[in-house]
Sequence to fold (401 residues):
Amino acid sequence: MKKNEIFMLALFPLVLGSLFLSINFWSRVYASPHPSQPIAQPVSPTPTPAPTTDATAHIQVALLLDISGSMSGLIDQAKGKLWDIVNEMAEARVGSKPTSLEIALYIYGAPHLGSHTGYTKRVVPLTTNLDLISQELFALTTSGGDEYCGMVIQKAVSDLEWTSNPQDLRMIFIAGNESFGQGPVGYAQSTGNANERGILVNTIFCGNAQEGLNTGWAHGATLGKGEYMNIDHNQRVTHVTTPYDAQISEYNSRLNDTYIYYGSQGKELKQRQEVQDSNAESFGVGNIVKRGKSKVSSAYKNKNWDLVDAAEDDDFDMKKIDSETLPDTLQALNEAELKEYVEEKAEERAEIKKEINELYKKREEFVKTQTTSTSTNQLDQAMIQAIRKQGESKGMNFKKD
Fold:
């Protein structure tokens, strides 16, 4: 071996050791905090703020009704039990704060609407106008047709102005008696779209529970994260009569006299209020009493045509009222006189509301004592069951006023 090769072999360990020491030194340097940069601290995730109890929570309900030929009993139950359902939702509170109630109405299974619509129609968008919901329910008639459940659910999901607040309760109730899987839009797709927007899909099969299981209604509720229920849609609507009904009904009539219409449609909408009283009474005095209870709840407001409700808002300007749209007896009043009259009617209404609430509590106690049992297999009981369960999951309570 040559001398220079021997020399290189002897030198190699020294070079390797030096390189190792150098790497170790600089790794320690860069591992230490740089004097011009602070040491990075672990960043905690920003907590999601809890829903504030100052904001009013909303209950939004879309009611999807099959109006094919065999569903006349279902429509009657919707007409005759509307105020039971409204009263249940009107009692919902978050803490002690009332909720805001909106209802929408869709129909499906109507051949006259045409195949291009999927035989479906939005009758009323989400609204706080309960008289309008009642009016449109009483205008419904039945006819034969195909029932596209998936399509009408999809329309309700996409067409309506749903809220996005996680504190709010958003529900679809669809009722019918044919196969749940009919039509060009699959219910798996439409219920999935509903869930993406925080909307629960509840299904109500009109008939035998097992048949509803066999025809997809239960599966639709499972996918929609809602409740599956079945009802006897042909069962006649009944209401228990009590000794308090006549007096509550009288107070309801006096309540109507406290409404002061205004605006271009005020007189027409006041007349609609009275017509819906008559419609409710067509299902018995017990039903008009329940409507009267709804009318003294926080859910029943008519600020768009009633001066007493409108004047509750601090920013409402009485000067902007066109006196010619007022009742004839009030048109000659000046602003101060009109304001005084509105305040008098507001006080009168408050007293009437108090009387109705007190009498209604006595009515409920009386109903509890009756041995005659009412059916628990109708539309209102099915909906109320789901409303309570799903509302309580949102922190709502349903204690009586």
Observations:
- The two ends are 108 Å apart (CA to CA).
- Strands lie at 58-66, 93-94, 97-98, 100-108, 120-127, 169-176, 199-206, 225-231.
- The chain has a mean pLDDT of 87.
